[in-house]
Amino acid sequence: MRLTEDDYAEFDVRLAAHDAFLRSRYPGTPVGRQPVHTVYIPADKLGGFRSWGDAALASMTDFPWPEAEAEVRAKLAREPIEDLRVDFEDGYGVRPDDQEDEAVRRVAKILAEAEGPLPPFVGIRIKSLEAATRRRALRTLDLFLSSYQDAFAITLPKVSGVDQVAAMVTLCEKLERSYGLPAGRLSFEIQIELPAAVLGADGGATVARLITAADGRCTGLHYGTYDYSAAAGVAAAYQALDHPVADYAKAVMQAAAAQTGVHLSDGSTNVLPVGTPAEIRAAWQLHYRLVRRSLERGFYQGWDLHPAQLPTRYAATYAFFRDGRDAAVERLHRYLARQESGIADEPATARALAGYLLRGLDCGALTDAGLPRSDLLVLAR
């Protein structure tokens, strides 16, 4: 051997900056509950969010859903909405300042004084930081914080470049200081609704730069199905979650977010389960297929826009985790016992298997993951 302790130390020094960058930029897959969906409700319609569970159950009564029906009904009765996002953007529209101000105060009051538990995750979507809506976006967030300072998410829509994300970081810092909040308390999700947010004018992957510009405050990347498809030139009749344009954008998002601790969320389908019985069943079948497709591609969250989409959201999600539960448990047991099998699993795969089982436990699809939760948490890290 020819290398000395000094040689080892030299390489440690040489790569110290890169080591620090990796620890900061790629902390690993986050361990902790991620909601299976985000329900978007316009700010002026928030008062009815507690009726979503009853409405979802009623839709199942009219059209019984056989797959995991008992478990889905129990979920809808207990926790129909996992992540509630009050929308002050497209779903709410552009209104006079005094009208939106009143809506902000009303939303804060509803959330602060709600009888009974709120969904596990709540937040608001402000308007974009584009010039036309920037002042309103800033005002809405400031006014909301003046009345509501419990934990909540902020969704930033129509992001087109790094400067908007950097400005959002500055805004969060200013509001934290102004309201006496701990540094880093405010974080936000970035909506990928424009091709410029995926591929920049210089040919680079803008979305990766957005995560860097967020300086640790970006908690999620959410795909915007229809804004993105329209901006890419897809005819309205063909805009969908499974269009090749959508798959390309989401593949780039997935690569950019990998190992960063940033969650991914698929978008929505605007084909709602309403109308004739045949139309409702067709919409359910489509939604079920799209939810399952997203899960199989590593997108564990999506948007729901109507109460009758909740049965298919949970039915598809529960089936996804239950279908793979036994095989995942067996592979983990073999991995831990160092047993040979037809699949040569590596540590990264063991982490993925443990993460899969933890997700199934978190959403209620699984009650027994085959291994203690504490062991799964260790394996998933």
Mean pLDDT score: 94
CATH architecture field: Alpha-Beta Barrel
- Reading off the top of the CATH hierarchy, the class is best stated as Alpha Beta
Q: Measure the end-to-end span.
A: 35 Å
The counted number of beta strands is: 8
Largest sheet: 8 strands, parallel
Strand proportion, as a percent range, falls in 5-15%
Structural class: alpha/beta
Pattern of helices and strands: HHEHHEHEHEHEHEHHEHEHHH
Number of helices: 14
CATH superfamily, by name, is Phosphoenolpyruvate-binding domains
Cα radius of gyration in angstroms: 22 Å
**Large-scale geometry:** globular
Classify the helix fraction into a percent range: 40-55%
CATH topology: TIM Barrel
Q: What is the domain total for the residues? A: 1
